[in-house]
Write a sequence for this structure.
């Protein structure tokens, strides 16, 4: 029971350090620890020197978090954030390239339509010229077909 109270006391010391108030459950009292004191729960779990509270809700029913565990979590988070940022940069590059391809496609489609229109015009001109030449009765008439 005394160890449980000491555990709660350490938790209580973490609270003010994080800017929050701390209250003990009914029937429990907080305690101040001296340098080198160890806190152990009634279940026999002891808190190491590297244990620390990092935010208002870090110390909970599961106990303390060791700084090395939190450091590992931060490193894993940083790696995931870097991977995310790299994927985001790749996405933006691909999105930009896709947009450029779409714009190029639109320009090519317009050019294709222009060429098809010109081909139709030339085919019409050729057909008219052939008909004119077929109807020409002299070289003079045939020369007039060119205009």
């Amino acid at each position: 029971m005394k160890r449980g109270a000491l555990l709660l006391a350490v938790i209580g010391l973490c609270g003010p350090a994080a800017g929050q108030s701390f209250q003990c459950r009914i029937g429990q009292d907080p305690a101040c620890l001296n340098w080198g004191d160890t806190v152990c729960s009634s279940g026999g779990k002891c808190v190491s020197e590297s244990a620390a509270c990092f935010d208002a809700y870090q110390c909970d029913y599961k106990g303390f978090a060791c700084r090395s565990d939190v450091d590992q979590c931060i490193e894993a988070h940083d790696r995931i954030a870097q991977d995310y940022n790299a994927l985001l940069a790749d996405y933006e590059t691909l999105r930009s390239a896709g947009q450029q391809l779409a714009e190029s496609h639109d320009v090519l489609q317009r050019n294709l339509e222009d060429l098809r229109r010109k081909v139709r015009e030339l085919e019409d001109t050729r057909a008219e010229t052939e008909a004119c030449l077929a109807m020409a009765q002299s070289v003079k008439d045939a020369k007039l077909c060119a205009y």
